[in-house]
C-alpha cells in the first residue's frame, strides 16, 4: 500500500482555520496536543488528540512530531517560475528591471529542456519552503506551461499556472499574437485544466503588453471557461500606472481596463494593487477579484506600500504572493515578515494568526478552493507542513519564551524561512524533508 493510501495519524500541535481571524474571533484553531488523520490523500479528522484517539484504528500508522506544528501547506498566489534563476537582479524599478533582466531571461524558455530543468528546481524550492499550491506565471511559450504542469503532475501538487499572453511592448522574440495566444491558451486549458490536481490560469502579463485585440480574446476565453483562473498585474508602480493611462485613454483607472475586457471576477488574481483608489477596491470586492500582496517584491523594486486598512474597509479579497523573481524569497514565512513591516508602515497591525490565514485558508477561500486546500478540515486534500520551532538557535530561544500561541506563531513569521520547514506533504504524501 502506498504512503498516501494508508491511514496515517500525525500527532503534533495543530493550526487550522474556520474563518478570517480579523473578522471572526476563534477563526484560528490552535491545538496544543493535536491529531491529524489522513487517508487516501485526504484529511479524515483533525483536532485534539484526546478526543480523536479512537480514530487510530488497527493498521493506522502513527507519526509522532512532539513539539512541532502541523499547519496547512502555504499558498503563494503570485510567482513567476521562469524568473527563479534571476532572483536578486537589481534595477531602478519595475520597467527597467523587465527590460534588463526579465525579458532576456524568459527568452530561454523557448527551449523545453531548459523549461523542465527550471520547473523542477522551482518546485524543489516551493516544497522546501512549505508551499504546496502556487499561482505561477510561465512565459509566452506554450511549452513553458507544459513543462511546469508535467513537473507538478509528477509530484501530485495542486498548481495553478498559465502561459503568458503578450503581443506588444516587449522584444519581438517574446511576442505571441491575439490569435496564437488564444489558440495556445485554449489548447492548454483543454490539456491541463482539472487534469489531476492541475488548474489553468489565463495570464495576460499586464495591460501594457497586450493589445486591445489580445485582451478581447482573453476575455472571450474567460467567458467560455468561468472556472478557469485569471492572473495579471495591476497598479504596481507609478511609471507603469502612467504608461497605462497613455496606452488606454478614456478608462476610469488601470483596473478599469481589465474590467472593460471582462477580466474582473472570482478566480481573477491581480498582483500588487498598490495604487488602486477606493472605487477600484470596491470593484474588486464586488466582483470577487483577489489582490495578491507581494511585499518582498514591492520593497525590492521600490514599488510602494500596500494598504491593508483600505483593503479591509473595502472588503477586497487579499492573499499573499512572493512574486519571485521581483520578490526576494520563496518562503511564505519571509513574505509574512515583510508584509508585517509594510502593514506597520501604514499603521496596520497584522497578527500572526492573520498572516498564517492569508498564506493558507484565506488564500484558498479567495481562490474558490476552500473545499480543496488551505485548511485541515475533513475532506480537504491533505496538503500540510510540519514546522520546527527549534529550527535555529534564535527561533528556539524566542519560541521557548512565547507566552501565547500568537507569540509562538509570530516568531515563525518573523524568524522563519525554509529552515523552519521540517516536512511538506502533498495529498498525504511526503514531498520534502529538511536535510
Ligand atoms: N509587471 C509585468 N510583468 C511583471 C513581472 O514579471 N514582475 C512584476 N513584479 N511585475 C510585472
Ligand atoms: Zn509578478
Automatic annotation (TrEMBL):
One of its GO terms (cellular component) is cytosol. It comes from the Bacteria. Its EC number is 3.5.4.3. Binds 1 zinc ion per subunit. Pathway: Purine metabolism; guanine degradation; xanthine from guanine: step 1/1. The keyword Zinc applies. It catalyses: guanine + H2O + H(+) = xanthine + NH4(+). Coiled coil: none annotated. SUPFAM superfamilies: Composite domain of metallo-dependent hydrolases, Metallo-dependent hydrolases. Pfam families: Amidohydro_1. Keywords: Hydrolase, Metal-binding, Zinc. GO terms for biological process: guanine catabolic process. Gene3D superfamilies: Metal-dependent hydrolases, Urease, subunit C, domain 1. Its cofactor is Zn(2+). GO terms for molecular function: guanine deaminase activity; zinc ion binding. Residues 70-431 form the Amidohydrolase-related domain. Catalyzes the hydrolytic deamination of guanine, producing xanthine and ammonia. Belongs to the metallo-dependent hydrolases superfamily. ATZ/TRZ family. This is Guanine deaminase. It comes from Trinickia dinghuensis. The lineage of its organism: Bacteria, Pseudomonadati, Pseudomonadota, Betaproteobacteria, Burkholderiales. The gene is guaD.
